[in-house]
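Appendix B. One record, verbatim.
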Amino acid sequence: MTPLGLLNIDKPQGITSHDVVSVIRRGTGIKKIGHAGTLDPMATGVLIICVGNATRLSQYVMDHDKVYHATLRLGIETDTYDAEGTVVQTTEGTISENELKAILAQFRGDIQQIPPMYSAIKKGGKKLYELAREGKTIEREPRPVTIHELDIMRWDFPEVDLHVKCTAGTYIRSLAHDIGQETGLGGHLTALRRVSSGEFHMEDAVKLDTLKSAFADGTWENYLQPGEIAVRNMHRLDLSTEQVKIVQNGGFIPRQTDEVALASAFNERGDLIAIMESHDSFQWKPRQVLQRD
């Protein structure tokens, strides 16, 4: 049986999230591999890789809050909002740490964020970064995000290290750019490290080189975490053997609660076998079947 689970990778700098997926496909021999929550090549830290049918859990992994440590360089703007882009403007000037703290307060809570042109969002069938490389800039719809925490970790003007806790879908590059705009100096991101993504934390992440060694000696599955971590906070259903068969065949089972719309379903061995959704007040229906006997 193909292993099903999640790998918490400490992504190194200089490679894409897809590059990490390719390394793991080669190392495991499993084709069904995907990542949950892209990190730019410049960024490092927690990257969750879904193995086997756990790829169908990626949306639940990505939906959780993220924590980042980011370095903002004030006084220089780039077209990509980070250090990999081309400098488009430099501004002389200074700002105090207390002045920046007051500006950061404006970005905490629910905000509207405009995604950067250099992003994978599609517009008219083309990714924004493809249009940006053609020298085009188009209007982007603002998106609601929530910044739960935004604090200074290190002040060394013109550089500042920031601690950010935010909802899924937040662009830290855009946040750095927007903070820079508010200072009047401009700014861009020079370093980014994701230290947690939902239930997954940096201290539990495995280095890619360590995982490569584990591929060679056949111990890589020791780093595989159970897929149910992705749905730990979801309402849980413990099914009988008969109910498992019904669910795996696409059938409906009785529902005892009206309070939740989604639930994780487990067999008698404690294996996650499906994600269920409410059909009506009396029944659950399979949304995704993850394991079949």
